[in-house]
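PROTEIN SPECIFICATION:
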Amino acid sequence: MAVTALWTEAYADAGPEGRREPYALQEYFAVAASAAVSVVEEEGELVAVVALFGPGAPGRSVAGPAEAELARLAVTEAARGRGIGRGLVERCAAQARELGAEAIALWSRPYQVDAHRLYESLGYRRMAERDGEDRDGRRWVFRLGL
């Protein structure tokens, strides 16, 4: 499936920490069961994807009770730098407001500095006190108050 291939391209072996194995189709179905998945296609090809978990939805990792969680934002290498990721993140904020969320939380790996710049340019703030680790390495948490 195109979504799992894009997630794998974006996250597996992409940096010094992080996922090492490819995403499986079952992982997509698990996300889609509790999150709104948005995609962008160009000329029939998937170029970007993001998932938004509403407040209280199963599958969230770092969001508090009244927070939505943005997850698995991925844009193909060829489509980066054109505002596609920014548009998806902004769409997630609008969706989270509609769901009544007080904020959106997300996590990112320390090496994902381009993503950090995007999030911070949209008003997300680093929440170092909420950082953590999982089996693949460190996770930095960012939050946007709505």
